Predict the structure.
Amino acid sequence: MLFRSTGNVHLFGAVIEVLPSARIEGNLTYVSNTPIKIHPGARISGKVVREPGQLPTLQMPGWPPFRPLLMFGLLAAGALLLALFPRFTTSAVQTVRTSPLGSLGLGVAIFFSLPPVMLLLVITIIGIPIALMLAGLYAIALLAGFLVAAFFVGDHLLKAARKRAVPGRYWARVGMLAIALIALWLVRHIPYVGGLLILAALTVGLGAMALQAFSHYSTRA
């Protein structure tokens, strides 16, 4: 706040600061969610009084249903992935099981290497269409990689629940995918390490898909 006044001043704000150059020849009363901050050098001849009350905070009406809608969207995308590419999805999940470190390494490489490539393409101007295409493929790959990791968690839960090999029934796997998504959402909220665990799951799934795609291409070639 920067002004000069020869009378009383009333202020309202979530955060109020009085700068060193302020000159107030009277009382200063304010309503704020936090105590006022008066910098050294500011001159207030009267009293500084904080009046009771709280300012309303900005609410985002769209947030409450956002997470359930996101979870439902992920579940629907996972169900569609399994329906359209059942063999590839199952093989990618198996790759996570048999080669977790290789999947993680390749996934991290893909995750961090593609954004700079897309940025360089954008800088060249003529490469913008290619960059946009890569950005779309990159987003789809990240989503699919996360879903592969979630299917891996869901298959383990299903195996533990039935105490036998993971069955191939479609709706059983989709149901366990829903539980896995909830579990991963809870893991996300672990302090400090939750985000890293989710990133690790995403990159493992991404790397497993890449390994499976390369293996499939090599076999056909």
In short: Confidence is low (pLDDT under 50) at residues 58-65.
